[in-house]
Automatic annotation (TrEMBL), chains A, B, C, D:
Positions contributing to NADP(+) binding: R48
Protein name: Chorismate synthase
Catalytic reaction equation(s): 5-O-(1-carboxyvinyl)-3-phosphoshikimate = chorismate + phosphate
Cofactor: FMNH2
Classification lineage: Archaea, Methanobacteriati, Methanobacteriota, Stenosarchaea group, Methanomicrobia
Enzyme class, broadest EC rank: lyase
Keyword Flavoprotein set for record: yes
Membrane-spanning segments: none
Region (Disordered): 42-61
UniProt entry keywords in alphabetical sequence: Amino-acid biosynthesis, Aromatic amino acid biosynthesis, FAD, Flavoprotein, FMN, Lyase, NADP
């Protein structure tokens, strides 16, 4: 059973390779009656596209979206929405000389073992360009969620050795797009930019942490005992290339807390049940509590670096050295922000439909 | 779409509540021809059963497994295997006085919001007793994997404020069951035991970290781009109650590493491709690399603690205080070890079948 | 990927073999708040149990159901409902002498090819006893549907060479259980009984046709373009052993009709859209029209007959003769009536939830 | 949960509307290493395209396929294959005056009830143009199956009142494409053509029967007890618009046969197990027997006819008359032949992978 489909009630299937003709996504399960313009998709794709700033790869792609189906007179009809982007600035020749070499930190070797053949140009299917389909589909999910008062915001909270101070949600919203590193703590952002620059000069790369926050999610979504909301979020995030850890709420810190500290006391707030703290990150027993959902993902440093590395020639089956040319991002988290938002939106809209909060057929009902 | 089923090619469905008549699991997709005796299941259930040591709840259950189908003349037949355990020591009355109160850190409140009704006795379906089905199914998965040279071992590497030193796999195997905390570093285990004891005396609880290692997994299993091996592991682990974070390989540390440090150099070893380090934790691009798969999960402190806590009465919709009596584990990680092993085994056997490494119908082929 | 699960939003997994310890089903996706007593399940099982009349096998089983989970204080809780029946009158020895012979018309040979091993006693998993789980689950589905004004009735419309006259729904309801052949045309029923008796005396068996009618289904359920309502009904019915054809509405006759005859004119009835005729059988484009859903299934004659038959010895790989002893139904349709009703109920309740007509979590909402 | 995806191990998702920009399909689960040229797809699309003969609609579409992903250096890579066809001759204006009228025999009314909005041009998503994606995907499935010695042939065996004589497989292969009605009995074909012509002159339409034969399928594919091979074939066929009945083997005739007639005696043939007759249609207990798989589908007459029909205005909610202009096929079965072959191929390749007969990852292994 192949794995290019995500979601159950709101289901996306992505396709396409880094240097193929095009990349795209089919989104099935979008309820009818949602006004949808290409611009709503494009604005999210613009946030992830290459060449957008000095912290991203210089590959120049407009990544202009075409919507091919599922819309009639400006509204969704409940039928599948097919969206695609043509590849334009695909310089494949730079990959010819490394086609048999396993790039360290990349999927070349296991792909070869699995399929016996691979499109080596730019990583083929394992390229981060695959996330175009996720972001396009996520843009639709966000539009739907917005109608139900749900907002999703991601931001960079650590890059290299720099950590941001905790910021209130308003400041995150306001500062998010002010700097190319997408860190709401502008002082930290300044330092992060320097660290990115230093890494680039050293022909190296750095990692970081992206935090995703979802507000307005009603209590009770998620499906015990396996399709728990946090389980599906963990899968969604870990399915993004380069993510090596996922935390919910107190996350990693929970291991050193006592029950009396970790437990969030229940309180009444405006005649509604809430919790005083939110160590749970908005999820208990796999179900949303009504509090903000908080997730953090650790992103490894970009594996493509412009320095010689030890590796093997998969054809000759012998050790050798590799020098990757190509065009790389010196760090991934800033461009991963819209991807992480998309994945969170996809999980939440899927579960909102699954648990009856959003009508599966039509928003007009 | 409900969520009590896990896996695709090797698929389990668990059922049952903490204080219901019984709990069980149906395992579909077990290839024919596997010799299977109840004792193979029972030995794993014994590792998770309550009352096994001073660090676990005193609830006394033999959790004796019955296999009801799918076996003929001592071998699996390819048909579903139904297994169950009767509940015996279910003292439901202790829950009567808190039936309308939302226990902090527990799923009571969101369950009530979702279903409008709940079996409040011992957490009902959201009880850790649900993992009986997982462990029973995982025991079958482990038996199958063992025939393909795959071994899965989990152990506690942190409990409360105590962290274990890194240990070689041999020592982990040898020491794992020597102490009730299931920590291979016996010195650390000693300290952990004391910390558990202290927590119990303070009517409090502590968290910890469980590491799961899978060796012998061939390169190339996992399904791009959503059903990646690490994505499915993350989901599997996060679906276990009390888990708040999942890391693969370098995990959380990857955020502070440089690409040149994080990338594992490929080398030839015994005419096979390997990596010199294993920061990837055995997974690149969502596919296994052939190196050991390393996963760490952070477990929160047991939410049931015997001290007064602030909460709300869900019926009266007003704030109040709760005193949980019942019988609780002072810490979860030691008993979570067999559950985490089971979930890892389930993910790997599922992917081994999905990618053609294990025949879906029969081991006799 | 194994195949013992049916449905998406209302999902059943059956398990068990003809001569194993027990048979059962886990039903996942039952909304919370449904009052459910064992008697509601038992009454349907009693309609399918062996030994109920002269037209059924003399194997004597009470098939007494136990509900093991998912119910609290007489109501469903939204968690999986596990139900089982113990096998009691299992006389396995009669199968010893034919364990290597492929019974004609039975699944012995392909099971052996698929799994390399099989429980040969009474057909093992391929026995009609497997439908116990379907009927138990279907009983819950029917209870839910009844609350939404949906009724499902099946009846025998042909047995051997006897065909029943068309009968109005009221007469079908009234006469259905009056004779052991479950034919509403009592005159035809008389003749059918004779034909069954004749077949038994000749050590032979006869086939027939079961019609299933669902009334009260609202317009618009079904999921284009693959999970159409008629597609899922066809699968559900064809998954019942012995069914060789499935028709919807005019069915087989449609091939000889003209468009002007086949098309059902739309009319207004009580301010609602209806059709004057119902050649569509209540389904257009895979979606319900609001008219009664009409399905007919052709059932082959029981393959187990007490006369010598030509076959092969699968172990020796040579031709031989087989004499099946055991205890057989001389004809299947009468006992298939509750099974067909169950499958129709399962498909409809699944699609009612999928399309938002029934709340997935709770009937209390 | 939406329904535009079919299959598990070989999974297709179709998208697009009759008068939208384009239609297409994403095929996930194609093993790596299959040589694939657009011409292999195009030749099947040419068999289903409109305007190909006097028995099909005059809408003129080249339906020229573009393959956008999943191929590298002429071979499949194991990644999703995205294929599309642009709509060119879409004359939407002819539908403006009937946009609120429910065309009898069409899905307009239930679509409106389900979604509250619909693309009324040419049936939108419920148009037969949707089958372009099925045929394109089926072409890949057929290529794979051919490598395993499996051949799939469909042909028209009845059209209107004309039935073809039974023909041997060789004659079917040879004569299939000799006449536009795709009937292998050329005498019957002659009469069928006249009946089509007469129907067109009467502004009416006729139905028919398509038989699909699959040879070379090994014994033992199919998944008990719900995903039986015949159950999945029934679903696949019934999911094609206009199909009202599906039969396997003796099918409808089985109801009047005795067990002693229906049962196919097992024999040894060339040291292999076979059956002397094939009333089972190649399937027992939901598993293939190794004999040819035989399926027949009844196709209703085209619902679009150029004569006034009684209907309702869905906006005004009152009765009225409809006159459908557009361009219609006078009969569907001839153009359904490649669609039925595609669906059979999709089911079989899916089950071949599921049961381990075809490697899920790669044909190179």
């Amino acid at each position: 059973m192949p794995g290019n489909t995500f979601g159950h009630s709101f289901r996306i299937t992505t396709w396409g390779e880094s240097h193929g003709k095009a990349l795209g996504v089919v989104v099935d399960g979008v309820p009818a009656g949602l006004p949808l313009e290409p611009q709503m998709i494009q604005k999210e794709l613009d946030r992830r596209r290459p060449g957008q700033s000095q912290v991203s790869t210089p590959r120049s792609e407009a990544d202009s979206v075409e919507i091919l189906s599922g819309i009639f007179e400006g509204k969704t009809t409940g039928t599948p929405i097919s969206m695609m982007v043509w590849n334009k600035d695909a310089r494949s020749s730079s990959y010819d000389n490394i086609k048999d070499l396993a790039r360290p930190g990349h999927a070349d070797y296991p792909y070869m073992k699995k399929y016996g053949i691979r499109d080596y140009r730019g990583g083929g299917r394992s390229s981060a360009r695959e996330t175009i389909g996720r972001v396009a589909a996520g843009a639709i999910a966000k539009e739907i969620l917005a109608r139900f008062g749900i907002e999703i915001v991601a931001h960079v909270i650590a890059l290299g050795t720099v950590s941001a101070r905790p910021m209130p949600l308003d400041a995150i919203r306001e500062n998010l797009e002010k700097t190319p590193v997408r860190c709401a703590d502008l002082e930290a952002a300044e330092k992060m930019l320097k660290e990115v620059e230093a890494a680039r000069e050293e022909h190296d790369s750095i990692g970081g942490v992206v935090e995703i926050i979802a507000t307005g999610v009603p209590a009770g979504i998620g499906e015990p005992v396996f399709d728990k909301l946090d389980a599906d979020i963990a899968k969604a995030m870990m399915s993004i290339g380069a993510v090596k850890a996922v935390e919910i709420g107190a996350g990693y810190e929970a291991s050193r807390m006592k029950g009396s500290q970790m437990n969030d006391p229940f309180v009444m707030e405006d005649a509604m049940v809430a919790t005083r703290t939110n160590n749970a990150g908005g999820i208990l027993g796999g179900l949303s509590t009504g509090m903000p959902i908080i997730c953090r993902t650790t992103v490894k440093p970009t594996p493509s670096i412009s320095q010689p590395q030890q590796t093997v020639d998969m054809k000759e089956m012998k050790e050798t050295e590799i020098n990757i040319k190509g065009r790389h991002d010196p760090t991934i988290p800033p461009r991963m922000v819209p991807v992480a938002e998309a994945m969170m939106a996809l999980v939440i809209v899927d579960h909102m439909i699954r648990s009856g909060h959003i009508h599966p057929d039509s928003l007009l009902k």
